Amino acid sequence: MSxxxxxxxxxxKARQPFYRDxxxxxxxxxxxxxxxxxxxxxxxxxLQPVGDAFIRIIQMLIxxxxxxxxxxxxxxxxxxxxxxxxxxxxxxxxxxxxxxxLVLGLVVINLLKPGVGMNxxxxxxxxxxxxxxxxxxxxxxxxxxxxxxxxxxxAISAFAGGDVLQVLFFSVLFAFGLAAIGxxxxxxxxxxxxxxxxxxxxxxLTMKIAPLAxxxxxxxxxxxxxFGTLISLGKLVLEFYLTCALFIMLILxxxxxxxxxxLLRLMRYIGAELLLVIGTSSSETVFPQLIDKxxxxxxxxxxxxxxxxxxxxxxxxxxxxxxxxxxxxLAQATNTPMNWHDQLVLLAVLLLTSKGAAGVSGAAIAVLAxxxxxxxxxxxxxxxxxxxxxxxxxxxxVFTNIVGNSVATIVVANWEKALDRVALxxxxxxxxxxxDPPPARLNQTSSGQASN
Length: 452
What we know:
This protein is an all-alpha fold and 452 residues long.
């Protein structure tokens, strides 16, 4: 019996069974996908649409979610100087960390030399498979084309094309416009908040099929490429996974430590998202969930709304590791001489072309082709050598991208003094717990009418 005047303490929630945890479900889906692809390859290769359908649903929502998040964050703050500070700090961070990633990638591939001794004769390489990627390379050849492509032809075309950078550009301008007109913008902001709520409801519903999507994507990959392809080029795969692990330990871990949070706990907190991107090899599939989780971790909404979409465009840590490793590996495999001067030129080219990946869907191979063409040393056709293992490597670099983008958002929020450290410590310590669904609006209305 509770004391008068004091409410009874709320009962602690029962611990959720492990089989209802999304991380476990995605991992189980991946394991089942591997078994299906290995033992039933004819069936597994028909499962590609399962993973693709999930990715398309998420891609359908990315543009509107960026728009709602950016507009709500910037217009709600109503401080143009703060937005400028956040953008400058974020871009500075992105450029420094991606440069470190490129340097680390070059150092490790030169030390381990997985391509040395392959002695590939380019006359025996069938390059027809890479023609489509070479054709895409013109999209990311010059810096001027890339900068001009930031501006969409129309506001609708930015959303229709799914170009994250164009959507971000329009959203920032629209948010500034809302902030400029003051109180008159409130009805629009209310509508945007309502839209955001409905979009995240769709995301919550879609995430229920994430384990099925991971199952389909992994089953297709194993059925199509098998384990033989991975074994034949296993040295490069192992070298690249080691490079990604070193990047996380030697660069991201100290950054997290200096900014006062545990990288391992952060990775556990976003564990479901990390497993999902391993299965789908697509960072877009977890963008909406990351927005929600980073806000729960205490990052101010305006900072998350500006930094995370920009990170998806400019902060490709894992992809930069991939570009450096793949380019030098192809030089080693084809006996193309590359001294340190040539590799520094390659690094400079990569600093530009890696940013161009934002405008091309699934652009890693296309951007690598553009880089090799621009450096004019490594045969572009040699990309055919790594097409079979690209999927295995993309899972690693997308995983690294997601960890890097999450760290970047928290770091910039900390620099901007827009980080609730109490919430950060509590969430990382207790782990992610899904929020309770809000009470039905119909019931609220009915009870209100009854009391009247």
